Amino acid sequence: MIGLPRASITSISDNNSNCLYAGTYNGIHKMNLTSGEWTYLGLNDFVVISEAAKNDSLLFAGTDQNGFFRSSDYGVTWERTAFDSNLSVNSLILQQDGSLILASRDVYITDDNGSTFHNLTNGKYGSFFGSIEVNSRGDMFISNSTGVYKRSNGSTEFAKIFSGGISGIEVNDEDSIFISQRNGGIFRSGNNGASWQRVYQGDARAVFITKNQELLTSIFNEGLIQSNDDGASWNNISSDLKGSQYVSAFAEDKNGIIYAGTYYGLFRTKVPITDIKEVIDLPADFGLYQNYPNPFNPRTVIEYSLPEAGSVSLRVYDLLGKAAAILVDEEQPTGRHSVEFDGAELSSGIYFYQLRVGEFIQSKKMVLMK
């Protein structure tokens, strides 16, 4: 058993050493790849949605609407950095020179471990960025709900190279760019974003390139698929990881094992990649978790846990207490459950979602921002 019992995985990463890190709805965890032992590192009051490790002792964690944290003692204690404590850090990458790039309301860079931050976008290209990638030439790619933008190495300005919101960006060793798009599929550009080719049609939730240059992507209603030829052909390697159990994050350890994070827990591949091994347990308690992403536009995922089967009601209300949507109203079995909420027909603002199962009632707040 190597998994995280009752944990919803929001992000996973490795430090090219002997550790794997996982962000969850209740803090951050670390796994020793030799022993398989997991250690809880704290931040239990926060939804950790991104993380990076410069080494085993110097760690960074981005949260949902609670800023950016740093630990210099192996995760024993954490301190806030100088980053705005009200912002989310949706993703971050550690560059070879030691600097960190953060995707948030804008895109920021810090070269002093979070003591100071430089804004790279300054509101010029929209807001609430989600993905970051840098190719071998030093060109940077960022995304938000309006599209994908590229900044050539040596430039200070970004230019749009793809229109529409996406769910992930990856660049391979030959600097081909791959993006995943919900209800759009997988797109490839071999000329640095000048033109694009759709290489797979589907509801693509995440994309990942392994060290062996294999292309992996999570398709919502199909499962985990793999390509060894830049998307010319595909194989389904796990039809179980689909629907509410789709993969939202990937990582690869030093041994070539691929880890897949879902709202139901952590999975890993066998080597060579042929299938997926489940590494989760059933929930012990009722629980309603913070929606992700939040703020959202227009879709977000709400996840909850049921330690026993029961009649489940999950509803969305506006500030006046008027029901805006009925998401679930049925008998459901024990386990982790998630549902996607689409607020396309609603106005921007604050909403509440409430879970009722027997005598258990819990509500949380979410923000629709169009």
Secondary-structure topology with pairs:
Elements: E1 9-14, E2 19-24, E3 27-32, E4 38-42, E5 48-53, E6 59-63, E7 68-71, E8 79-80, E9 91-94, E10 100-103, E11 107-110, E12 118-119, E13 131-134, E14 140-144, E15 147-151, E16 159-163, E17 168-171, E18 177-181, E19 185-189, E20 197-200, E21 204-209, E22 215-219, E23 223-227, E24 235-238, E25 247-252, E26 258-262, E27 265-269, E28 276-278, E29 287-288, E30 299-306, E31 310-317, E32 323-332, E33 335-342, E34 349-357, E35 360-368
Antiparallel strand pairs: 1-2, 2-3, 3-4, 5-6, 6-7, 7-8, 9-10, 10-11, 11-12, 13-14, 14-15, 15-16, 17-18, 18-19, 19-20, 21-22, 22-23, 23-24, 25-26, 26-27, 27-28, 29-30, 30-33, 31-32, 31-34, 34-35
Describe the protein.
The protein is mainly beta and 370 residues long. It has two domains: 9-278, 7 Propeller (Methylamine Dehydrogenase, Chain H), CATH 2.130.10.10; 287-368, Immunoglobulin-like (Sandwich), CATH 2.60.40. Helix content is 0%, strand content 50%. It has a four-stranded antiparallel sheet with strand order 1-2-3-4, with no helix packed on it. It has a four-stranded antiparallel sheet with strand order 5-6-7-8, with no helix packed on it. The radius of gyration is 20 Å and the shape is globular. The chain starts with 8 loop residues before the first strand and ends with a strand. The model has no long low-confidence stretch (mean pLDDT 90).
